[in-house]
Amino acid sequence: MSDFPILTAMTALPLAGALLIMLVRAATSSEGDPDGRKALTAGLVISLATFVVSLAVLVAFDPSREGYQFVRSYEWYGGISYKMGVDGLSVMLILLTTLLMPFCFLASFPQTSKSGNEVRRPVKERATEYVVAFLVLESFIIGAFCALDLILFYIFFEAGLIPMFLIIGVWGGKERIYASFKFFLYTLFGSLFMLAAIVYMYLQAGTSDIEVLEQTGFAPGAQTWLWLAFLASFAVKLPMWPVHTWLPDAHVQAPTAGSVLLAGVLLKLGGYGLMRFSLPMFPDASEMFQPLMFALSVVAIVYASLVAWRQTDMKKLVAYSSVAHMGFVTLGLFSFTEVGVQGAVFQMISHGLISGALFLLVGVVYERAHTREIARYGGIVQKMPVFAVLFMLFTMANVGLPGTSGFVGEILTMVGGFQASTWAAAGAALGVIFSAVYMLTLYRRTIFGALTDRLPVPVSEMDDVTARELLPLLALAGLVVLLGVKPGLIFDITEGASLRVLEMMAGG
Amino acid sequence: MIDWTAVFVTLGPELWLVGIALAGILAGAVTGDRFNRISFKLGAVALFIAAFVSWLNFEGGEAFMGLVSANGFVNFARIVSFLLAGVALWISEEFFARHETIRYEYPVLMILAAMGMGVTLSASDLMTLYMGVETLSLCSYVLASFHRDSARSAEAGLKYFVLGALASGLLLYGASLVYGFTGSTQFAEIAQAEPEIGFLFGLVLMITGLAFKVSAAPMHVWTPDVYEGAPTPVVAFFSAAPKMAMMIVFANVLFTAFGEKLDDWQLIIAIISGASMLVGSFGALLQTNIKRLLGYSSIANIGYALIPVAAGANLGAPALLVFMTIYVIASLGMFAGVLTMRRRGGMVEDIHELSGLVQSRPGITLALTVIVFSIAGIPPLAGFFAKLAVIEAGLEAGLLPLVILLIVASVVSLGYYLRVIIIMWVSEPREAFQPTGPSVAATVGVSGLLMFPVLVALIGTLTAWANIAAAGLVN
Fold first, then answer.
1. Which residue of A84, A223, B164, B176 is 20 to 30 Å from B288, comparing CA positions?
2. Residue A142 falls within a domain, yes or no?
3. Closest chain A residue to B414 measured between Cα atoms?
4. DSSP assignment, residue B99?
5. Bridge-partner residues for B62, per DSSP?
6. Residue A170 and residue B426: Cβ atoms within 8 Å?
């Protein structure tokens, strides 16, 4: 293995790109790039380069070795170190991030409608800053997944709030300011408790090195409080019922690309945190709170599914469906079985792909019709057949149809949950049924039926997906099916990480 | 015999500043108003030199039979205070030149105020302490009302004076009680004394007086009014250099003179810390005047800074230095940002005047965004590391309730910090501000760059210096 700090390079690449874009922008006037096309192209190129680097990490990653790989550690100050390293779990989540990021930029390009009547501009203004915000956010997310020092993790984890706040607040919908405040304040409130817990652990152990803390073994009494403090942060981020209410607002107001990233990756930070910190570092508390977590998971699955059913806004529906699907993640994680934990990891990745695709799809029709109200749609299939096919595929994947990745994640987490608690698994199964109800309802009402005249634009404007929109959707569709048929592609890589968590729980 | 080496080592910067101030008065009286503008720059340079001299004598020493003594802890504060006072003076020039109230008395007053800070920082005797505090305060009252023709400025000065005089009286009365019950005015001997009830009364009164000077709740009421009324460059000065100096003086008095009686005053400090955090964060929520808002923000931040004070010298001193240094740099940058808010009719102060600032001034907006998020303590900006140090000190000293209050206050105060940012980024743009001179814009930019990435990269160095500085206190 070479000495090249590839993880740092991967983390810094988008940030460096963002800096470059800002410098170029400062040197040239904004007149040279009136519709932001150049800035978006630059962002696309940089994010693709980052994707290539993360693929290189995946190729060089050796799933048979235990523990963290590509570890680089430098003293920073006072027991805090700049320590980066990845295991199977983080490699897959990084890959998910770098894969979705180019799609985010692709979805933001301006384009002329087929009739030529309208130029669709997802980013109406300040495209340079938009691209910079996304690239900075990508850096922070990758950094959070790579960090092997708890304080370093916190820095990356929390730093992502600033660009996301601006993405929602500056480029979002009508109620964007309310949504961005809610997003920021909810997340920060939870996270600060985690920060206090992190500092406590750091004072106890004299270091914030994650590998050391995994072995430290905190007293059961302290574990309870630490576990709760960590949960405060991750439950908001995930989000779990009852602190999920920021998510629908944030999603509805965020621009399409922001929603893709939020649902696809940012929510995963919560699941990642629970698996990386809560389970191995506080095994006693985790076991003690298993019933609570099961209860919250089942409530999230059932309640969020029912709420999703009653939504009139497409994005809100998908947002609530995200809450439900994240419930499966916590269910699987807290089953403490191999199948459950593996299922939870799989579910995170699968949900990242599916929800990302669903938000892209909603974005496609929103750009055309400027409304997300389900009741205004109908009969889209007649004007947009390709769209209807793709939408069908991802609807089925979201429902958990066998042959798609959604199925694998849900079935495995439920099997894991079943081994720990029959009732929890039964409740979760109920949620699967509800998910079919709301997704199929959505599909039927928007795609089938008579061609609507309720849209705010003439139906002639509803032209089918363009090549630029098609490419990400096809890529995601391919992955969803591929992983549904051959889930081993992910399991082979994440198995080591999942087993290690369970070993540490048993040993600690 | 006076040991002049020792005098220079402990009071070198102050002697230099007194000399400069007297020379300035003389020169001003002889030459009239011809050199008003240049006097600002010269005064700033004199303050930078004072900071340099403090750095040369970092180890400190003792002089005048224990009336003054300096150590690393106070010298660290001196360096930061003099530097920031210099910057505040440098950027004042343009403001007063535009308002045609530029006078050489201003730099002289500011230098004398800085001299007062230096004296009170190096005090190791109640009398020196009081003299230094009063020198600083008297200069501050005049500075606050420097716009003689403005009713608001005069009102601010008067309010500041009346309440400040009361606080000084409390401080003096407390000091006299402490003297009466211990028989000495020297910190070293007070530290040895048995805590009797009268002594504790004196301690409480002294804390009250000093809390007023740092604007900690419930002695904070003057802050928003004075911040709003005083000329903006003066507020920029108030919010940085004297804040730093008085906070360190507050801690220094408690740590050295009353360090053994931590149990007696820890609870008092904890209560005013918690009260300041809550008053500062909730009080600012409804403010629309940017200066008032920042005044409340400073009250909240003083609350955070009092957590390491309550943690005691061993655990808290380095954290206090790190926190205050980062905070006052950000605060000065923020007020430099307020100085750019100028339209044809003069200065504007409503936060909605910042509407859409990003359209006309993207650079300043970016820097201000960084500064505001840093004051709010969001990583990866320097302010986060400041708060991290405070939380660490608080938890190590077992002050969990204060840490939880800090969390609550941080979230609440984010409500108004985010509002400022959203207004700058999202709201409909208004007419652009008039262009400002290079020094003001540079101060905003440098402050922003210090918040990220300079101080973040150097946080290890800053912490190491703070540790060395605090070691001087413990010995």
1. B164
2. no
3. A185
4. T
5. B69
6. yes
Residues 370-399 of B with CB under 8 A from A: 373, 378-380, 384, 388, 391-392, 395-396
Quickly tell me which residue has 């139906």 as its tokens. A459
B464/A170 Cβ within 8 A: no
Six-digit token string for A168: 């929602």
Query: In A206-219, where does DSSP find H-type helix?
Result: 210-216
CA B438 – CA B436 distance, rounded (Å): 7
Distances (CA, A) of A172 to A167, A179, B357: 7, 9, 18
- What distance in Å separates residue A103's CA from the closest CA in chain B? 25
| Beta carbons of A411 and A350 less than 8 angstroms apart | no
* Cα–Cα distance, A94 to A54 (Å, whole number): 7
Residues B166-203 as b or e (16 or more Cβ within 10 Å = b) = ebbebbbbbbbbbbebbebbbbeebbebebeeebbebb
Residue A371 forms part of a structural domain: yes
Question: Look-up: residue for tokens 């994707």?
Answer: A51
- Cβ A25 vs Cβ A128: under 8 Å: yes
Q: Which residues pair with B70 in a beta bridge?
A: B61
User: What is the rounded CA–CA span in Å between residue A86 and residue A71?
Assistant: 7
Question: What residue type is A306 in one-letter code?
Answer: L
Whose tokens are 């307020």? That residue is: B338
Q: With an 8 Å Cβ cutoff, is B407 touching chain A?
A: yes
What sign results for the dihedral spanned by CA atoms B175, B185, B81, B366? Answer: negative
CA distance B273 to B266: 10
- At residue B431, the 3 state secondary structure works out as coil
Residue A358 lies in a domain: yes
B248 token code pair: 């360190």
Q: Encode chain B (475 residues) as per-residue pLDDT tens digits.
A: 678 888 888 898 999 999 999 999 999 889 877 888 889 999 999 999 999 999 998 888 888 888 898 888 999 999 999 999 999 999 998 888 888 888 888 999 999 999 999 999 999 999 999 999 999 999 999 999 998 888 889 999 999 999 999 999 999 999 999 999 999 999 989 998 888 889 999 999 999 999 999 999 889 999 999 999 999 999 999 999 999 999 999 999 999 999 888 888 999 999 999 999 999 999 999 899 999 999 999 999 999 999 999 999 889 999 999 999 999 999 999 999 999 888 877 788 898 888 888 888 888 999 999 999 999 999 889 999 999 999 999 999 999 999 999 999 999 999 899 999 999 988 888 888 888 888 899 999 999 999 988 998 899 999 999 999 998 886 5
- What gap in Å lies between CA B475 and CA B469, rounded to an integer? 11
Nearest to B39 by CA among B1, B119, B96: B96
Residue of A110, A101, A144 lying closest to A233 (CA atoms): A144
Give, in order, the Cα–Cα distances in Å from B48 to each of A321, A351, B87, B145: 61, 58, 9, 25
Domain encompassing residue A323:
289-508
Chains A, B: CB contacts under 8 A, how many? Answer: 76
For chain B, the residue count is 475
Tell me if the bond preceding B453 is cis, omega within 30° of 0. Answer: yes
Rounded Cα distance between A93 and A87, Å, is 10
Query: How many domains does chain A divide into?
Result: 1
| Region of residue B194 (phi > 0: left; psi between -120 and 50: alpha; otherwise: beta) | beta
CB contact under 8 A, A77 and B459: yes
Question: How far apart, in whole angstroms, are the C-alpha atoms of residue B397 and residue B315?
Answer: 7
Give the helix, strand, coil percentages of chain B, each rounded to 5.
80, 5, 15
Residues of B within 8 A of A170 (CB-CB) are: 425-426
Structure tokens at B169: 């009286």
Contacts of A189 in chain B (CB under 8 A): 407, 411
Partner-chain contact A188 B410, CB within 8 Å: yes
Check: CB of residue A330 under 8 Å from CB of residue A271: yes
Is there a contact between A202 and B379 if contact means CB atoms under 8 Å apart? no
